[in-house]
Amino acid sequence: MAAVAKKIGQDAIEKNGWLRTHKWLLLRRFSQLGILGLFLAGPLFGVWIIKGNMSSSVLLDTLSLSDPFVFLQSVFAGHYPELSVLTGAIIVAVFYFVVGGRVYCSWVCPINIVTDLADWLRRVLKIKTALHFSRSSRYVFLVMTFLMATITGMLVWELINPVTMIQRELVFGMGLSWVFVLSIFVLDTFISRRAWCGHLCPMGAFYSVLGQYSLLKVNAQNRADCNDCMDCYAVCPEPQVIKPALKGNDSPLINSANCTNCARCIDVCAKDVFTLKHRFINFKTTTSRCAY
Amino acid sequence: MNNSSSHSLQTRRRFLENISRAAGGAVLFGMGLSLYSQPSKSLPAGAIRPPGVNNEIDFLSACVRCGLCVRDCPYDTLKLSKLGDSVALGTPYFDARDIPCEMCEDIPCVKACPTGALDPELTNIDDAKMGLAVLIDQEACIAFQGLRCEVCYNVCPVRDKAISIDYLHNKRTGKHALFIPVVHSSDCTGCGKCEHACILDEAAIKVLPIKLAKGELGKHYRLGWEEKNQAGESLVTPDIKHQYNLPEGTRYDYEGDGLIQPDKAPQKSTPFEKSALDRLNGGSL
Question: Distance between CA atoms of B282 and B261, rounded to whole angstroms?
């Protein structure tokens, strides 16, 4: 019973110290806020490292970068794109294909900070409410955003997409988009756990598809050491992805497209079961390496 | 064996249930969203798109709302619509009364656009059609009161082509002219400098979306005199030369002078007589 009452990650903190137990979390927050900061440095301080917003931008006045999800919506809406946005979308898509599609969600998207906070509050306040959404809902929504773009000939999802909306209004001046963000916070905190990022967001679904075969994956390579403390499940935004790798007999690779590579499981594991590795790591060599 | 097949049947059923629930939710949501999206198809009359937008619907299919045009506008004219504004969310526009378009020759906003939502074929800013200036309130415009203003005319970057001054008779004083600004849609770029500069508290001249501001003559309509000029002759029954049996030595002027009798007293400076009969009879007294 004492183990149940223990704080999540307590073992890891005792073993590795607070800083190492929050290493990836802090790095992610640094990345999320840093990217936002780079976009804001222009309008606030006149330092134009990157111009535009996350839908499309220009890095150092030369490299065009575009969000492939927003780009695809405009293609489905019937627009024949210019080369600039096309190459920009390809560059970004290749990047996420390599590092993991949903790295966008956990390392870039500003909404993630809000939904992580909501999940943390749920844990601290022990809120147990559960309105059930299917985790596949997001794929249906993803198909719908493209379908709707085709039918209406507009980027309809961009009229209400909270992800692009909030970061655009943070960079270009705040309107009422905070209402959307607050709604997501309330939904995730009081109504359903991880409802937005883990179940509904079509942008996350798009990046899941993009990262299905991405090169960088979390690997439960020391799964033999697992002591079933369940801390990784508690902090994981997509806990269903862990079990096949941690408890299965096949590859220890977390191969699900829904894994965001947030690496929070690496942080909280006192037994150092998880690590970030490229996907080609061989199951047999890892086990033999464990034997050393 | 039987057990496992019934189990797989159960998971399949659950899967189908989940999918159909999500699909149902998505369809409901999609219908709501399409209703919500309808008003954003029409740009509000007060908002002007940057140069290079030929058609609002095409623009909304292309713009990814990145704001690069806004960033490269040297006069801070352009802004991105925020949630709560009536312009389609995140798209660039400007308010001419606030800051008009300065019509930069290198058109940096169009160059910045990565998608082609702002048409890259627009290379001469004078060809831009952001909107059309309309002298919308003739009651308030002081030129119609007979006062000299012509500010809109003088600030126009395409002065004398997009806005010219027509002289009309001032009926109030009877002897002065009204200096009336007239907008010509062929040359107006919709930059909004006239609206910005209008000296009234509320501008009498305003830039409107072309669709709202411009009338169009029916395609079947032909203007007789133009057709006649083009063809070199009348296309209908040839004009019959008017013939009157006039007293000998007199002729008739159709354009106001009436009956002319060269023998009689010279024409008066005013064509108007005290009585219409006097004029018909030669106006001599």
Answer: 7
